[in-house]
Write a structure and sequence with these properties.
single chain, alpha+beta, six-stranded antiparallel sheet, 24 helices, globular
């Protein structure tokens, strides 16, 4: 019987592939179901044969998941993109110049509009699936990805795939699945998804993998990585991946001229509208892996690839009214409310007008017929007015408000800025926005809290600024559970429900998770706390730079303007904003209170293992015997060195393991970069002791 289990699993994997990837089923649905039922019965009889990659596991589980964040083995960089064909020509010419006139081919492929995914396989089995995340680390969504039927869980026995490899692609929700899902949500009076990308992202992040299994996600794979790749070109590797059972787009073409690229763009600008999934452009990649290595990378993207985005679709509709929203920074954004219109596959009824200048340039009047596009196929915006269709019943001109729509404070516009601001820091949307920013994943990562919960807590009086989060406690009174700040002992339940005091009845288990997440956030590193404070213009990169330079919040608070601008990446605007933030007494109170609650106000003191690698940039390539890649990366940093991903003239040496990539080897030899084997590297570190 165990042999029969293996036979059934292999057969079902095969028929899954034929049905979901090749669209050429060999058996009926009923025959497939009979095989599946037989396998389910055998697996129940032989529980010791459990395999997470069995076809029976695709139905999903009701286990509630929290997604572990895992660092990518190789950063998932974004691509430079353009809507302009002149930029495509300039990209082509840069590649020509970078390769010193050497002939090259470009692989043209469709840019799918979904959620980027990284799939890791070992010995032919799917072992991990990560989202792109911030490019450095992503969410482990393996359990949910196992339910996507076009993703192989186990590659065919005897295949010529490498023992370990990574393949990247896009998880998508096809148009038919998207339409069905929104129809179901509309019938249940639930909010509709704006577009298939949002639906795919929300589905893949579901905590119930049965939901994922039911929603019909699909996946196209477009990038094979590893230390032992089968071919020396991008196209050849994808063709090989297709032979292993991966769903690779048929819409790929190798070209050797700019004219052929333009022809590919022209064809798919129209043909894409007939595809079963959303696409928003074309990706152009240098085909040769050796040439990719020679061209290298910028800090954010590869020099050997670019994404060309199609011009947005346009629709005509009527402007009914304009409302104004206040954001976290106080910026006031006008929002157009329009008659619903179908645009790029979704119904649109609201669009951003951005700022006062845009309203003036458009010369908008209520009742105007307006042209709407989707920026990047996602965000609707008004791009013009059909003035020839204006009539005698034209409404009033749209004018920007002069007072805050939330608190009535006179608005201000700073020199050199397009946005208009409410200067009142106590304006409710700003206060709530600062709390929402503080709890965000990239900031304090306080799970279980979100905009709706923050809004409820704010209106109830429980949380009026970020310090109140750390005062929250779960209190039992008269058999009921309350979330409160400080001591709360109402004399009657009725008074507890009606009181104006900061307390509210809650569900115990859910709130325990919130309280624990808040407590856990006290260990979030100093640079993320600095980002979480919401200092204007201080993003994640600037926060890291400031934390690395000043080490403590106390030192940053008293830093002069000149000391701030001396930090790499910190200009006059950021420096001025930091100074202004700490000059505000209310901000000083918040920071002091957070310190009292035990949040991380300084970088941890690190003991450097040595200085042997001080100032050196080191590339790691190949496989190793004594330590993992991650361990070697930590050792390099502990001895004062810097681990970098690509070889350049500035690279000090390559830590070269077995099966080092041939393109990296060739580039190192061409640039004269030394290679250190594993034992030589360890001996170098030992020589310091």
């Amino acid at each position: 019987m165990p042999d029969r289990i293996d036979q059934l699993r292999a057969a079902l994997h095969h028929h899954n592939y034929l049905y979901y990837v090749e669209n050429q089923p060999e058996i009926t649905d009923r025959e497939f179901d009979e095989l599946m039922h037989e396998l389910q019965a055998l697996e129940a009889a032989y529980p010791e044969r459990y395999d997470p990659n069995s076809p029976t596991q695709r139905v999903g589980s009701d286990l509630n998941q929290t997604f572990e964040q895992v660092e990518h083995e190789r950063p998932m960089l974004s691509l430079g993109n353009t809507y302009n064909r002149d930029d495509v020509r300039e990209f082509y010419e840069r590649v020509q110049a970078g390769l010193d006139g050497e002939p090259f081919a470009i692989c043209c492929e469709l840019k799918f509009d979904g959620l980027s995914i990284s799939l890791h396989y070992e010995d032919g089995a799917l072992v991990r699936a990560l989202t792109r995340g911030d490019g450095v680390r992503g969410d482990d969504v393996t359990a949910n990805v196992r339910t996507i039927r076009s993703i192989p869980l186990q590659l065919p026995t005897g295949g010529d795939w490498p023992r370990r490899f990574e393949i990247r692609g896009e998880v998508l929700m096809p148009w038919n699945s998207f339409d069905r899902l929104n129809a179901e949500r509309e019938a249940r009076e639930e909010p509709l998804f704006a577009n298939p990308r949002n639906a795919a992202s929300g589905t893949l992040k579901s905590k119930d993998s049965r939901v994922v299994a039911a929603r019909g996600l699909d996946a196209y794979l477009y990038y094979l990585l590893g230390d032992e790749l089968p071919g020396d070109t991008h196209y050849a590797n994808l063709m090989k991946a297709r032979s292993w059972g991966f769903k690779v787009s048929e819409g790929m073409r190798l070209v050797t001229s700019l004219e052929e690229i333009y022809a590919f763009l022209d064809y798919w600008d129209e043909a894409r509208k007939e595809l079963p999934v959303a696409t928003d452009g074309v990706v152009l990649k240098v085909d040769s892996l050796r040439q990719q290595e020679l061209l290298g990378y910028t800090a954010k993207s590869p020099r050997w690839a670019i994404a060309y985005k199609f011009q947005a679709e346009r629709a005509l509709t009527r402007l009914n009214e304009v409302t104004f929203q206040v954001g976290r920074t106080g910026a006031v954004t006008p929002v157009a409310n329009m008659e619903p219109v179908l645009l790029a596959g979704t119904m649109v009824k609201r669009a951003s007008l951005h700022n006062e200048d845009i309203i003036r340039q458009l010369d908008l009047h209520l009742g105007d017929r307006v042209y709407v596009e989707k920026a990047g196929e996602i965000i609707p915006q008004i791009v013009g007015v059909a003035k020839e269709q204006r009539d005698a019943h034209l409404g009033a001109p749209v004018e920007f408000v002069h007072e805050c729509p939330e608190c009535g404070t006179p608005l201000v516009r700073y020199e050199g800025e397009a946005a208009t601001y409410c200067p009142n820091d106590a304006c409710p949307p700003q206060r709530k926005g600062r709390i929402e920013h503080f709890i965000a994943r990239d900031a304090m990562n306080i799970k279980s809290l979100g905009p709706e919960v923050v809004d409820k807590y704010y209106e109830n009086g429980l949380v009026r600024d970020v310090t109140d989060l750390y005062r929250l406690q779960l209190t039992e009174w008269d058999g009921h559970w309350f979330l409160s700040r400080g001591t709360f002992t109402p004399p009657t339940l009725g008074e507890a429900l009606e009181t104006q005091a900061p307390a509210m009845p809650v569900t115990k288990v859910a709130t325990q998770k919130i309280v624990k997440a808040i407590e856990d956030s006290k260990s979030v590193p100093f640079d993320r706390l600095l980002f979480a404070l919401g200092i204007r213009f201080v993003g994640k990169v600037a926060a890291k730079a400031l934390a690395a330079q000043f080490k403590t919040l106390a030192a940053l608070r008293v830093a002069s303007f000149d000391e701030l601008t001396a930090v790499e990446g910190i200009g006059d605007i950021i420096a001025g904003s930091v100074r202004a933030y700490f000059a505000n007494p209310d901000n000083e109170r918040i920071v002091d209170t957070l310190a009292e609650f035990g949040l991380q106000m300084a970088l941890p003191e690190t003991v450097q293992a040595g200085t042997q690698l001080e100032g050196r940039s080191i590339v790691i390539s190949g496989t190793f015997t004594h330590h993992s890649r991650e361990e070697y990366k930590e050792m390099i940093e502990a001895h004062g060195g810097k681990n970098v991903s690509s070889i350049s003239k500035k690279t000090s040496f390559v830590l070269a393991g077995a099966n080092m990539g041939p393109s990296k080897l060739e580039k190192a030899e061409k640039l004269g970069v030394p290679l250190l084997r594993e034992d030589e590297f360890l001996a170098l570190l030992d020589s310091e002791n």
